[in-house]
Amino acid sequence: MIKPMSRMPFCKGKSWSRGFSLLELLVAMAVFLTISSVSFTLFSRHQALLSSEQLTVGLNIGLRNALSQIQLDVVNAGDGLILGTNVPAWPVGVTINNTNPTAAQCYTAATFNTAGAILTIPTYTGLCFDTLNVIVADPNTPAIHPCATTGCTISTSTGTTATGQVPAVINPATGVQFTTSQLASQFKIGDQVLFVQSCSGGGHTAGSSGCKFTTAVLSAQGGTDTTSPGCGTGCVTLTFSSTEAGGGNTSTSGNDPYGMTTNAPAVLLSDQYGPNDYIVRLLPITYYVNAGNVDSGNNPDPQLMRKQAGTSNVVMDQVIGFKVGAALWNDVNTSTFQYNYDASTYSTPYQFNLVRSVRVSIIGRTEPKATDPYRNAFDQGPYQIRGNSVIVDPRNLTMNND
To answer: What span, in angstroms and rounded, lies between the C-alpha atoms of 211 and 221?
Structure first.
């Protein structure tokens, strides 16, 4: 008979493994939870830091792009305004509206609750920002003369119309010479036009520094004329709002929205123009800040805007500083290289034909987040602050420096 095997361990000398004890499991779980907690805490902090750095990088890129766009425009300031065989003593290539508010006038400070949490984000007002106008001529519209017969003269202060012959210029849209109706259609109601005396004719002293100008806004669409004296080959008729006597304009007249003649010295202006002078259609570019803009979350978002031909485009969001300074010509073959941020304190106030260099500074912020515990030292807001600037020498404004 076969005896059953006794209940003996399969391998002698080895005991059965009983696994982890409850105490060991609890210790292991505690260690694991501690390490996991530290890891996730570090990850969370680095994730917030990464998000903050991405916002800062975006802000720096926005500053660089905005300044690059301004630089491209300002370097061509005065383009198309050099007319005639002699270079005038101007052009006015830029005009600047400077504001110099106190901090209290510039922005409303943030408010906090008793626990230190932010309630309202700093809000900036329009007083905080300058305005820069870059004056250029419309490259697709040739200049016309104010009148069509030999020895004729018009007055911009006592009259409201100018009738000039169509120049023999190729229309870039068609590749052939402008017709009278084509050129007339280029001048639209609301356009600002520049009247400028030719230094080489029109009864003015050639080569003098007295080549004067004025500006007006068209009150009607350009028209045509083939019956008036001198218009047998076709003339363009422009109707405009009259200027003040002497060629000036007031700030409330609406006749000079870009401030070329408002407050300008009388020695630079005239209301008398002849057959050798010019009328130029302007296509200025204005940089300004829309301080009242808000984002989709109803948070303040001041935007730097670029406006040309009635169309405004956003250049940069979250702009909290926009200042424009000018280095000026001092009439003794040198320039003052300190940048002036108040046009009323120029050697001759508001004489923008003295401008030889422009310095534009922008301050921006990352998107405000009320839950962000960070507070910057600039205005104590919950966002990062960055600033940058660019200096531009408009090439058309240095023609008379020699």
So the answer is: 28
Confidence class for position 208, pLDDT limits 50, 70, 90 = very low
Structure tokens belonging to residue 108: 């409303």
- Indicate if the pLDDT at residue 18 is higher than 70: no
- Please say whether the beta carbons of 164 and 236 come within 8 A: yes
Give the start-to-end residue ranges of the domains of the chain: 51-133+286-398, 137-283
Using CA atoms of 134, 138, 139, 140 in order, give the dihedral in degrees to the nearest 10. 160
Q: Find out whether 362 and 331 touch, Cβ atoms under 8 Å.
A: no
CA angle centred on 182, ends 180 and 188, rounded to 5°: 105
Q: What span, in angstroms and rounded, lies between the C-alpha atoms of 171 and 372?
A: 57
Torsion of CA 273, 276, 277, 278, to 10 degrees: 130
Report strand pairing: 131-134 vs 94-97. Answer: antiparallel
Half-sphere exposure of 91 (CA within 13 A, CB side): 27
* Start-end of H helices in 4-155: 22-74, 103-106
- pLDDT (tens digit, 9 = 90+) per residue, 261-308? 988 888 889 999 998 888 999 999 999 999 999 888 788 899 999 999
Contact 77, 396 (CB under 8 A): yes
**Residue written as token pair 């009323």:** 344
pLDDT at position 21 = 77
DSSP string, 223-278: EEESSSTT-TT-EEEEEB----TTS---TTSSS-TT-SSTT--GGGB-SEE-TTSE
